[in-house]
Protein: Putative ABC transporter ATP-binding protein
Organism: Nostocoides jenkinsii Ben 74
Amino acid sequence: MTAGISVIGLTKTYGDHTVLDDLHLTFEAGKIHGLLGANGTGKTTLMSLMSRHTFPTRGSVLLDDREFGEDPRQAQRLCFIRENQLYNDAFKVRDVLRIAPTFYPTWDAATTTRLVDRFRLPPATVVKKLSRGQRSALAIVLALGSRADFTFLDEPYLGLDPGARETFYEELIRSYGAQPRTIIMSTHLVDEAAPLLEEVVVLNQGRVALQAPLDEAESLGLTINGSAVALDGWLRDHTSHQELTRRTLGPTATVTTLGPLTEAARQAAETARLRVSPTSLQGLVAALGNSNHEAA
Ligand SMILES: Nc1ncnc2c1ncn2[C@@H]1O[C@H](COP(=O)(O)OP(=O)(O)OP(=O)(O)O)[C@@H](O)[C@H]1O
């Protein structure tokens, strides 16, 4: 049995546009996963499919090894507050917070009250009159308040100022520490959010470009700079390093690669007078987004 949420052969097309292409992935239970990748690469679509806001063209979603839809109670185990979440036009913040617990048997009233206070959400304001950041804060309150076994956070900080983002990170850790569960969060603020993540999935053009524990993912990106001829020789000798992006300036090249750096490979680079430095996770995600890389 695989505890967690799995997708098998998941494909989503809109007309002749294949947004997700035969995805096979498992998000292990009880971890915080980062879902990363360039704009339009299918992160929101994947979350929508995993939470049944949208239906796949092909493939299936399994919750703890059971096909989604087998048991109506499965829906209560998931929480996905979409970025463009629709609320009843007349609803005030307090109406949304009054109704939300009826959807989630695991609702955590104490966390909700504290978060409303910390984000200074105005209870008597109609939701559609909230600012962009306040709408994000409300979505965070609902997502963390739900304490759902599988919680999806889709760029949860849109419009949040740096102080509010800090509050979000603190509260996410606090809530997760009190009740570990499966949290899948998409974000473009990769390096800022990285300390929260245990596992990383990078999508590229609707396919999985990388899935790895955070520390491994952080060690796989390298920036190598030096003579283009020497660099090409090094890359030929070290085929476990895949070139993702390249900039050339005269005879000099700078390449971003994906692959584990062995001591022998590091020494070979030194001998060839190549400068090797680690690429941040943000840099690696950007390079994957600009390459045609697909996970093996
Ligand atoms: N309802 C829809 N009809 C047609 N195309 C859609 C629909 N929903 C999403 N798409 C397309 O699917 C692709 C992936 O969109 P998605 O929102 O999943 O990307 P994303 O990775 O979340 O992007 P971002 O980082 O910009 O939020 C985009 O090209 C988008 O235009």
User: Anything to note?
Assistant: The chain has two domains: 30-49+72-205, 217-289. The domain at 30-49+72-205 is CATH 3.40.50.300 (Rossmann fold). The first strand starts at residue 4 and ends at 14.
